Amino acid sequence: MTKGLESAMHRQATKPLVRVVVVDYDGGETTLACLRSLEATNWPEDSLEIVLVDNASQKPVTALVRSE
């Protein structure tokens, strides 16, 4: 079996890869609460990607996220 096919078969047996995109515009604590909730899921860490997009916020939440 080829490596790519083995990998595809393994993924079918496990939870699928998930990417969550959170778009923020001055969401502050609400955005942080959303990100915390996503991190608290029981989804396997290697199958979950969380992308935070700062939509030109007046008070960017990215510095707060980095500090946590």
Q: How would you summarize this macromolecular structure in one to three sentences?
A:
The chain is α+β, with helices and mostly antiparallel strands and 68 residues long.
Report on the architecture of this protein:
With 68 residues, this protein is an alpha+beta fold. It contains three helices and two strands; from the N terminus they run αβαβα. A two-stranded parallel sheet has the order 1-2.
Share of residues in strands: 15-25%
Question: Could you name the ranges where pLDDT drops below 50 across 5 or more consecutive residues?
Answer: none
Instruction: Give the CA-CA distance, first to last residue.
Output: 43 Å
How many DSSP helices? Answer: 3
The tally of structural domains comes to: 1
Mean pLDDT: 86
* Bulk shape: elongated
Q: What structural class do helix, strand and pairing data support?
A: alpha+beta
Strand order in the largest sheet: 1-2
SSE succession? HEHEH
Major sheet characteristics: 2 strands, parallel
Number of strands: 2
Estimated helix fraction: 40-55%
Rg (C-alpha, Å): 16 Å
Q: Would you spell out the secondary-structure blueprint of this structure?
A:
Blueprint: H1 3-13, E1 18-24, H2 29-39, E2 48-54, H3 62-67
Parallel strand pairs: 1-2
Which characteristics define this entry?
68 residues, alpha+beta, two-stranded parallel sheet, elongated
